[in-house]
What we know:
Blueprint: H1 2-18, E1 32-34, E2 43-49, E3 54-62, E4 68-74, E5 82-88, E6 124-129, E7 136-142, E8 161-166, E9 183-189
Antiparallel strand pairs: 1-7, 2-3, 2-9, 3-4, 4-7, 5-6, 5-8, 8-9
Cofactor: Zn(2+)
Enzyme class: oxidoreductase
Domain Superoxide dismutase copper/zinc binding: 56-188
Amino acid sequence: xxxxxxxxxxxxxxxxxxxxxxxxxxxxxxxxxxxxxxxxxxxxxxxxxxxxxxxxxxxxxxxxxxxxxxxxxxxxxxxxxxxxxxxxxxxxxxxxxxxxxxxxxxxxxxxxxxxxxxxxxxxxxxxxxxxxxxxxxxxxxxxxxxxxxxxxxxxxxxxxxxxxxxxxxxxxxxxxxxxxxxxxxxxxxxxxxxxx
Length: 196
């Protein structure tokens, strides 16, 4: 009798657990990949925080598939956090708030977020998943971007672009930046960032 009661309780718990909603997975269109080889990256951008301290770098190259591959290596971030990460329209990182970078890179005039039926911005990128050591080191793809002169998707246009890390996760839906909060890290991309 005791075993039968125990079995019924375990079964009921299992069935109850099946009804719970799973959290949204990151968008499949822009998968993150572990860093393997970075020598092919042609542009190097230093990342600075609001105090002006260097906290990592970004490297960029044309992807073999589509758009650009972006290698980000950063430290001194909130351990275990999920942080919004975007390409902004101007290559300017004036401290302390980095508002000089303007809005998201959005040459196709779309709404914000991978889950937005009217979106997404070309500069929308997957959230950064920070390790327990406060570091992140990944390569991700931005399919709607380019380094080709004359392309409306070129992030290296006359005023450049900036890479911004936000204080909270991007919800992949809400305009203008997914409720991701303040801009805490910035890296400015201009014609001077090309590797020698």
